[in-house]
Amino acid sequence: MTKRTSDTAKGSGNALRRRRTLLAWGFALPFAVIFCVFMLIPLVSSMTMSLTDITSRDLRTPFNVNFVGFKQYLTLFSDARFLHSLQVTAIFVIVGLPITMIIALAFAVALDKGLQHVNAFFRALFYAPVVASVVAVSVVWRYILQADGLLNSLLAMIGIEGPDWLHDTHYALPALMVMTIWRNMGTLMIIFLAGLQAIPEELKEAAAIDGASEWRTFWSITLPLLKPTLLLGAVLLSVAYLQFFEESFVMTQGGPLDSTLSAAYYVYQKFGFGQYGIASAASWVLFVIIALVSALQFRILRSDD
Amino acid sequence: MSATTQSAIIPDNKLSLGQRFIKGRGISYIILALIGVVWIFPFLWMALGSLKTQREILAKPPKLLPEHATLANFTQWFTQLNFGSFFTNSLVVAVITVLGNIVFCSMVGYALAKMDFAGKNILFGAVMVTLMVPSVATFVPLFVIISNLHLSNTYAALILPFLCQPIGVFLMRQFIGGIPDALMEAARMDGAGELRIFFQIIMPQCGPALATLSILTFLSSWNNFLWPLVSAQSEEMYTLPVALSLYSTGQNATNYSVLLAGAVLVITPILLLFVFLQRYFIQGVAMTGIK
Question: Taking CB atoms and an 8 Å limit, are A126 and B36 in contact across chains?
């Protein structure tokens, strides 16, 4: 804080600065209180809880628990289900992310040029799934994907016998991915469109005059210039995909045979069983992974400036 | 293609509608329209299904249109499933969350954008942390804290943690940063206090940003799931997504006509908002995603 001095001129300067600081923190007070109570304290206690044997029985006496060191983390990493949930989450991100990006980029390029009003219509159409509640669309997709549902009826018309998508260990996760891609594509499409529109038209025109094909212009001019936007989109979406939970909760309850058990679902299950210590440890592992990916995001943003 | 070279010679308004259609890549529009129908089909299928009777919805192969369209599935939500209570909960939580964010995010945004003070970096760091920490990382201790504050199963538990969200802070900081200092200086000359400057000079300028902020906050509150699922423990506190998810995973898991009606009821308010206020939704994504 500001130091008191006997020098009057300096003193009044300090007083002014102190007043300004007080005032600014006054404006920040609601945020600061909410941050401390609902973010900082939970984050610190989550770390603390992950080092204790706290369970739901200690809910009213959270300080009356035993310190167990890193035992919860050891238990966690020797639990095949947790490792499996990390694997499911990784597959979900590593496969789902590039596909979402390619589709979003294709839509963004298709809607970058042409009639403004028609483009705006399509943009809204393809963005619409983003605004819908995941729970609600999961219910709809479960109905479409059930053994004798719409998808399999359509497949039957062309002579294919579709599997029972959500009750088959091979198809449940891919089916969830398709729905997630459908629901999230719009966000990336909008971000990519903004990126495309920031590329100066003259560059593309110059390439065209030099005789470059449209395809060539896209590869050599548009795509390299779009790189920061693409990276940003990749990070934003991977942070979201790393936390996937609702889709599994409504569509498969993590099944069949844990084939759609995500890391976030694992945390929720341990919480549901009242094992708060291990749930906290698992949530910290997931958080560290997410933070690393986010850190990447800020590095990308900074190198962009 | 010749689209780019042609555009250099003939201005848009000199072309006939047909030519403009070709120039605007007619074929790609036809393809987009076909994909668009498939893209939006889950919503149509949901709406059609919600009007079917329990018998019709189990028909093999499924029929596109309901033969005996009925509103019985919706009536069931209103008469037997407490829809009124779920809807009220969702709405109350969303509206209060929006109001809180409008005031609180603008306040921090103002401090960060227009003031120079000790600890500014700490404050900014705190906003960053909030942005980065996912709810899955904090919900367990948050539940313990809320329980010990005797707030579990109350509106307060559903609302308080979301009253000042980091996305909103960034949005307001960026927007307020663009308001000329001269406006504030002039008011200061006239002897206006800081609070008056904020409420009478700054806030009235923030209309467009506040519209985007309200839409974003309403959307995230309406669709929020993990925390309401954890903190609402009895039926009278369920929000719509929580009620729908628990109904859909319980013994009525295959009662699809009622489930689809529930999905319609959850999605329709947001879809209506989206249709009418589309600009703000898309601005919000572009603003928060890019910067």
Answer: yes
pLDDT at B279: 81
The pLDDT of residue A5 is 43
Domains of chain B by start residue, with CATH: 3-75 (no CATH), 78-290 (1.10.3720.10)
Query: Is A27's CB within 8 Å of B198's CB?
Result: yes
Strand-pair partners of A52: A67
**Residue A104 Cα, gap to closest chain B Cα (Å):** 13
Residue A52: helix, strand or coil by DSSP?
A: strand
Look at A10 and A191; give whichever has higher pLDDT: A191
Same domain membership, residue A79 and residue A45: no
| CATH number of residue A99's parent domain | 1.10.3720.10
Q: Is the dihedral of CA A186, B136, B247, B160 positive or negative?
A: negative
Candidates B134, B145, B222; nearest CB to A41: B145
The minimal CB distance from B225 to the residues A24, A113, A246 is found for A246
* Sole residue written with tokens 């989550």: A46
What residue has token string 């548009």? A222
Q: What is the pLDDT of residue B188?
A: 85
- The reported pTM is 0.88
Can you give the residue range of the structural domain that contains A43? 8-49
In terms of domains, do A43 and A170 share one?
A: no
> SS3 for A173?
helix
Q: pLDDT by residue (tens digit) across B55-75?
A: 888 877 888 888 888 888 899
Distance from CA of A28 to the nearest CA of B (A): 5
